[in-house]
Design brief:
The complex is a heterodimer of chains A (224) and B (113). Chain A is an alpha/beta fold and 224 residues long. Chain A has nine helices and seven strands. Helices cover 42% and strands 17% of the residues of chain A. Chain B folds into two domains: 48 residues; 40 residues. The chains are: A alpha/beta (224), B mainly alpha (113).
Chain lengths: 224, 113
């Protein structure tokens, strides 16, 4: 079983080495997509033991995930693809929990959820925004998931090939759920920990950005 | 009236641009004809405002000026729509090119450890 972690990274030279090294023991290969970084993200990732794909200009996280997926399916012949974050918000050991349902054969997609247990230290505002995202997803895709914008997921080879990400920027998370519904893929949620640190809050998505993501999602969905 | 002179001058300028862009092959024949007809029509309407009164009566709008404004707005929205679609397709093509390059030039992990 070949498991490949796909990590989109944009100007993550400070975090990417730790991300690659922490996840590597739990997977067969690590692929970092350097999404047009102006820093040393590519070099640091390679040195840490990852394949590196470089977007010459920044195209967004959704675009980077798709690049990683295409490469991983075609060139590395992966059986399982794990989406992982560059900024060390996830616990690397939890890769095993995500992959397990795929191995047992009960699911095509495994979604990490930070709301299934109480380990994550989610700030209140973020919690409210995410709950809004969950309601939004129920309305748009009909999926009853507990966490819609968690970047930690595992996909079988077949599921990864079916799920077409056309949203280049952040709205891809909703799009992936739509694709799961559309292709009637079997999915399960698994509790994962999301660590909120000062660094991750600065580098990551601002809660206000959720409005933009909804906008991108709607315009992308209606006008693609 | 001054306004007529100003708009006519601008229409002539625009027509010159339309011709030079067409000669430089930056404008397809279809769009060349579209813009040619458009700016000539603008000239006609400005020089002979009474022509719009005819159209106004025909389509059932009060004043000729109003007809010109209504048609302009509809045309503007449509052009914005076209540009919007074009930008989306350019964006998605840029992503595809970027992706192809990234996959073609994929680098393997450093093996020196």
């Amino acid at each position: 079983m070949k498991i490949v972690a796909v990590i989109p990274a944009y100007n993550e030279e400070k975090n990417i080495e730790r991300a690659v090294r922490s996840v590597k023991p739990h997977v067969s290969e690590v692929v970092v997509i350097d999404d047009g970084s102006s820093d040393q993200t590519s070099e640091v990732s390679r040195a840490a033991g990852a394949y590196v794909l470089t977007h010459r200009i920044n195209r967004g996280q959704g675009a980077a995930l798709r690049t990683g997926t295409e490469f991983t399916l075609k060139q590395l012949n992966a059986d399982v693809i794990v989406h992982y974050d560059a900024d060390c918000q996830h616990e690397a050991e939890e890769v095993n929990d995500l992959v397990k349902p795929l191995m047992v054969g009960g699911a095509d997609v495994v979604l990490g959820s930070r709301f299934l247990d109480k380990k994550s230290n989610i700030p209140l505002l973020r919690k409210l925004v995410l709950k809004g995202g969950i309601i939004f997803t129920r309305l748009t895709s009909g999926l009853r998931v507990t966490d819609t914008h968690n970047g930690f997921r595992a996909l079988s080879r077949e599921a990864a090939a079916k799920i077409q990400i056309t949203q280049d920027r952040m709205a891809h998370a909703s799009e992936i759920l739509d694709e799961i519904a559309k292709h009637k893929l079997r999915y399960v949620e698994v509790p994962v920990t999301v660590k909120y640190s000062k660094a991750s809050m600065e580098k990551g998505q601002s809660s206000l950005n959720s409005f933009r993501i909804v906008w991108e999602y709607l315009t992308g969905k209606l006008f693609k | 009236m001054l306004i007529q002179i100003l708009i006519i001058a601008f229409a002539i300028f625009a027509l010159v641009r339309v011709f030079t862009k067409f000669k430089a092959r930056q404008l397809s024949i279809g769009w060349f004809i579209f813009w040619l007809v458009f700016w000539v029509l603008v000239g006609v309407v400005v020089l002979l405002p009474q022509t719009t009164e005819m159209v106004a009566r025909w389509v059932g709008v009060g004043r000729g000026v109003d007809v010109a404004i209504y048609f302009s707005i509809v045309l503007l929205f449509y052009l914005v729509f076209r540009i919007f679609l074009k930008i989306q397709s350019i964006e998605s093509n840029i992503t595809k090119l970027t992706r192809e390059g990234a996959i073609r030039e994929a680098k393997e992990p450093k093996q020196d450890e």
